[in-house]
Amino acid sequence: MSPDAPVATATAAPAFVAAIGPYLPRTHIAYFSMEIALEPRMHTYAGGLGVLAGDTARAAADLELPMVFVTLMSRQGYLRQSFDAQGNQFESADPWVPEAFVHPLRAKVAVLIECREVWVRPWLYRLHGRLGQPVPVLLLDTDLPENSPEDRAITSELYGGDASYRLRQEIVLGIAGVRVLHALGFEITTYHLNEGHAALLGLELLRRYPLPADTVGAGELGFDAGPVRRSCVFTTHTPVDAGHDRFAYDLYERLLPGYVDSGQVRLLAGPDALNLTRLALNLAGFVNGVAVRHAEVTTRLFPGYDVRAVTNGVYLPDWVHPAFATLFHRCSNCWVHDPETLARFDQLPDGDVWQAHAQARGDLVAFVADRTGVALDTQLPIIGFARRMTAYKRPMLLFTDTLRLRAIHAKAPFQVVMAGKAHPHDEAGKQLVRQLHALSRELAPQIRLVFLPDYDLAAARALVAGCDLWLNTPLPPLEASGTSGMKAAANGVLNLSVLDGWWVEGCIDGVTGWSLGEEHDDGAASRKLYDCLEQVVLPLYHRNRAGWIGMMKQSVSKLASYFNAHRMMRRYAAEAYLQHRGSAIRTATDQPAGRSPPPVRAA
Ligand SMILES: *Cc1c(COP(=O)(O)O)cnc(C)c1O
């Protein structure tokens, strides 16, 4: 069909059949993600997006959903973080050892990039949940002797390099990813795009559906988008405009000459730049945001599309401390499959809940001592704040007025643990890391503030279980969902958060945690935070322990029973995967008044 049609060398060798054969007949949904957190020692993730993809895969395995997962090998990982005495962040590569976890498959495909054949080999990881069958995860690798040194590095660094490097990675993920599935013999009917990074797969699918030659009034596309829309599900993850990948058409034409004509791509991906979010919106029949608020914000950002909400959830068996898992078994011995049964958690005795929490906190104190050498006080409440270090997350909000913070601490003491990596190109984020190091020196010895380096799965597990209070102060409406707060909630760690993302749905103020409202102004938001800590949160902890434990129990019963990955995947299965999908593009008649018309006519 085209000069760069897939060249596959899948063989029927016994090892190959044994590796992939069992998955073929029972798999018809492919989930594409630039990053997936599979195990702590596999550095194929950077942060929340990858952790969510991993939780998605584990729930899919438990529920025996007919899915295969596709991602990049990322041999050099994302980054390891270290600091000098001034808190300057240093980044180094974070390689891992694929051979210890994944098996190369005897199949490879080529994709033409800049008129060179780039060969791509999939490696297989078998992901086991707690129940059911394992699901296959394919990690795409260009580090093959037949490729040029430059092309061998395409699947090496997660979110590394420049725009050209990123687009090459997205060509491998989206275009080669579809070809690998075909070469292996998967018959895929549904493609789930986890964020826009994989959106080029839509173009690859479009090329498989050329319009019949005699079509009348077929529109400008020259392809039949209907079958593609029926097969694509798109989950968008960021309401920050800069978070959407955009590439100059010059670059597209240079890397993919003669692929899909850039005039046609412009109709789908925007006139000025190749916007992968727009491309995915136009080619998916089901589009969703990751929380109710986020779906509303996305609709405002991209008017004319029907954006549903499937609120994120976390894979509880991996996120709850073993002591809490033991308590969960007392609610129900099938809580992994039926997390709704955790609604009964509020019936457990206070003493048992507090004791389980003390164990989790002890483990966090040991973890912090091990990574930093700092000894936390086992008697004082721990406030945790761990997220990507970037301006809109506002990590400095708690420290806006250090005099007031000291006064609050003098009456009701606490300690703070923070963690988070700044992206190497995010100068403002790195500046925040420096400021937090300076603050930690300034506030000592009265207020203990520890910055834990290298926020990763292991650190997250210790933090979300062992803190007492989980603080989140992003600038609304920029938090799409947030999942760390769900992990904390499931461990009885109370959330104190700006009303944004998932917390709009999760917060019952004074019952499941506390709301900091939706203040935009940093001054007003920090005053609200201080008032809340001083008048409500810390007095409850220090003077009414039974009241605090009562809220811990409500947090688990009301939040863990809902914000879990099993509920999320049952919703994707029922609403996005099984349903007949139409077009996410609204037709002129059902468009709310005042919205601009859709950029592409529904086919
Ligand atoms: C859960 C998690 C995240 C995402 O948490 P947010 O609340 O969205 O910031 C990021 N990194 C790691 C390591 C996580 O475990």
Automatic annotation (TrEMBL):
Keyword Flavoprotein among record annotations: no
GO BP term, pick one: carbohydrate metabolic process
One Gene Ontology term of the molecular function aspect: glycogen phosphorylase activity
Gene3D superfamilies noted in UniProt: Glycogen Phosphorylase B
UniProtKB keywords: Pyridoxal phosphate
Signal sequence segment: none
Keyword Protein transport belongs to the record: no
InterPro entries: Agluc_phsphrylas, Glyco_trans_35, Glycogen/Maltodextrin_Phosph
Modification sites for N6-(pyridoxal phosphate)lysine: K487
Similarity-based family: Belongs to the glycogen phosphorylase family.
Protein name: Starch phosphorylase
Species of origin: Frateuria terrea
